[in-house]
UniProtKB/TrEMBL annotation:
Domain named MIP18 family-like: residues: 13-83
Species of provenance: Aquimarina algiphila
UniProt name for this protein: SUF system Fe-S cluster assembly protein
Signal peptide range: none
Pfam families: FeS_assembly_P
Gene3D superfamilies referenced in this protein's UniProt entry, alphabetically: Fe-S cluster assembly (FSCA) (3.30.300.130)
Length: 108
């Protein structure tokens, strides 16, 4: 059997690794550590849904960033389809940033 089986948790970890390669253009921290990704869902068919926010509703990359994320995640071999959902509830705040991101930005 040559088909590679990958479980949803493993695929979820691969997706997070991809998300950590995408940076907010205004802040030198990746979108995952920045806290812009609220949730990543992967079903048995390897369809992915990403729930995310932006630093503000007027963010200059409101159109391009979700598209970049979708394209990069979809480029993973095991991913079937990617759906992006943008939300501002709850609104993004610096509290959502990881310790690593706060350290990187000199906030600790």
């Amino acid at each position: 059997m040559s088909e590679i089986t990958i479980d949803t948790n493993e695929l979820g970890e691969k997706i997070v690794r991809v998300l950590k390669t995408i940076y907010d253009p205004e802040i030198p921290v990746d979108i995952y550590e920045l806290g812009l990704i609220y949730d990543v869902f992967v079903n048995e068919d390897h369809d992915v849904k990403i729930l995310m926010t932006l630093t503000s509703p007027n963010c200059p990359v409101a159109e391009s960033l979700p598209q970049e994320i979708q394209e990069k995640v979809k480029s993973l071999d095991a991913v079937n389809d990617v759906e992006m959902e943008l939300t501002f509830d709850p609104p993004w705040s610096q509290d959502l940033m990881s310790e690593e991101a706060k350290l990187e930005l000199g906030m600790l």
